[in-house]
TrEMBL record:
This is mitogen-activated protein kinase. Residues 404-425 are annotated as: Disordered. Its EC number is 2.7.11.24. It comes from Panicum virgatum (Blackwell switchgrass). Signal peptide: none annotated. The lineage of its organism: Eukaryota, Viridiplantae, Streptophyta, Embryophyta, Tracheophyta. ATP binds at residue 43.
């Protein structure tokens, strides 16, 4: 019987050190001793303390299972809990990324036009895949885009994402939108339009790209009114036709009474940028959402001539209603616990089969990897682990899965059987070392092995005693805190952590001169 070989994975991962710590739990770097890969193992504790947190975790692990793409962060494994009924922590294994785009922008003042192009291409390629699945990310910003020293980007943090189902109009309306204001589309400032479309993500990508070009946020608004002022200062006042379709009466009056502003030529605002890049940026930052291109249309822009190819830009099958049935009604913590357990089983095929056949047991009689990791994580925390101070549970914020950003790390020795790549000089946090790298394997299909997508069992019909789960709206205090945090970053950069010693960065020609670039 292969029971222990499949599920006794307590010895598969060799824990290295604590690389992050916060209200959600602890993140440790580790080595997958089966593959030699570097991974980040994240312990998310007390997952069911807040129903909204649990729902966000469920949403994210489900979406990251369904959205398998080179430019989206990958969950490699989720540890099976010792008990189906009583677990409260989960351990998620992610691919380990070096930093995030916020750090890259902050630490690099010499990014080339090739870097600009390659960064935008990857973001749009991921967005095309996400949108063809009928998913809106809704919280795109530099900190939610992970990066490696070889210029590889991956979108993460799908905790605020939503799925627009096939039986609904192409545009939908949500009342719980709480994303960061600086990257928020105009239609989300004061609920301008009655319905939202994938264009909200396109606007965010435009803001991020502008920040890549200049090194500073494009619209760092202090409040909604200031945000609109900054937008119209650059783009000019919107047309009467656009204003007439705004559903918020106060916003309509404000824009109508605003003095006439003429748009600023992007060549003046971004004097060092590629003119072709600015033409595309103007399309991405159209005030009216109907004037913005789709991700697929943006990829066809002349700016990507010689780089973009349809076979490297796969689409995704739309996600079905059954996968997100829990979003459409009230659920309890027990409902969400059962659904999270069901998602964990996707990474344990034999137990998933037993579960689907109704033959699984509530408690599992084998050495639990979770018990092993709990001891290792506790030992690291007790011995310092180079981690920050724990945030009290009373201050816990409603967050999704923690990012796979390396806060600090010692160089991890390569696997003995693997080829030792060229060593690259150590960089400060977020520093891009070396030029853009090419794609590796040209293929039109998803390079990841697709996991079996078995449908979730339908939950019992909602009853009157089911408690509603809601999403807590951020207060203006949260926005002010974010603004102060980023302002402090810009005013004085103090690299408090070390960037990891990159062993895998491949030197090559910049993307503008690559021949036969291939899909990574």
């Amino acid at each position: 019987m292969d029971f222990f070989s499949e599920y006794g994975d307590a010895n598969r991962y060799k824990i290295q050190e604590v690389i992050g710590k916060g209200s959600y739990g602890v993140v440790c770097s580790a080595i997958d001793q089966h593959t030699g890969d570097k991974v980040a193992i994240k312990k998310i504790h007390n997952i069911f303390e807040h129903l909204s947190d649990a729902a966000r975790i469920l949403r994210e692990i489900k979406l990251l299972r369904l959205l398998r793409h080179p430019d989206i962060v990958e969950i490699k494994h989720i540890m099976l809990p010792p008990s189906r009924r009583d677990f409260k922590d989960i351990y998620v294994v992610f691919e380990l990324m070096d930093t995030d785009l916020h750090q890259v922008i902050k630490a690099n003042d010499d990014l080339t036009k090739e870097h600009h192009q390659f960064f935008l291409y990857q973001m749009l390629r991921a967005l095309k895949y996400i949108h063809t699945a009928n998913v809106y990310h809704r919280d795109l910003k530099p900190k939610n885009i992970l990066a490696n020293a070889n210029c590889k980007l991956k979108i993460c943090d799908f905790g605020l994402a939503r799925v627009a189902f096939n039986d609904t109009p192409t545009t939908v309306f949500w009342t719980d939108y709480v994303a960061t204001r600086w990257y928020r589309a105009p239609e989300l400032c004061g609920s301008f339009f009655s319905k939202y479309s994938p264009a909200i993500d396109i606007w965010s990508i435009g803001c991020i790209f502008a920040e890549i070009l200049t090194g500073k946020p494009l619209f760092p608004g202090k409040n909604v009114v200031h945000q609109l002022d900054l937008m119209t200062d650059l783009l000019g006042t919107p047309s009467l036709d656009t204003v007439s379709r705004i559903r918020n009466e106060k916003a309509r009056r404000y824009l109508t009474s605003m003095r006439k502003k003429h748009p600023v030529p992007f060549s003046e605002r971004f004097p060092k940028a590629d003119p072709a890049a600015l033409k595309l940026l103007q399309r991405l930052l159209a005030f009216d959402p109907k004037d913005r291109p789709t991700a697929e249309e943006a990829l066809a822009d002349p700016y990507f001539k010689g780089l973009a190819k349809v076979e490297r830009e796969p689409s995704c099958q739309p996600i079905t209603k059954m996968e997100f049935e829990f979003e459409r009604r009230k659920v309890t913590k027990e409902d969400v616990k059962e659904l999270i357990f069901r998602e964990i089983l996707e990474y344990h095929p034999q137990l998933l089969k037993d579960y689907m056949n109704g033959t699984e047991k509530t408690n599992f009689l084998y050495p639990s990897a979770v018990d092993n990791f709990r001891r290792q994580f506790a030992n690291l925390e007790e011995n310092g682990g180079k981690s920050g101070a724990q945030i009290p549970s009373s201050d816990r914020k409603h967050v999704s899965l923690p990012r796979t950003t390396t806060v600090h790390s010692n160089p991890i020795p390569p696997n003995g059987n693997s080829q030792v790549p060229q060593r690259i000089p150590t960089a400060r946090p977020g520093r891009v070392v070396g030029p853009v790298i090419p794609y590796e394997n040209l293929t039109a299909v998803d390079p990841y092995n697709q996991r079996r997508v078995a449908r979730n069992p339908v939950l019992p019909p909602a009853t009157s005693n089911l408690s509603a789960y809601t999403y807590h709206r951020k207060s203006d205090n949260s926005d002010r805190e974010l603004q102060q945090e980023l302002e402090k970053d810009r005013m004085q950069y103090q690299p408090a952590q070390r960037f990891m010693d990159f062993l895998g960065c491949i030197s090559c020609r910049c993307i503008g001169h690559l021949q036969n670039p291939q899909l990574s």
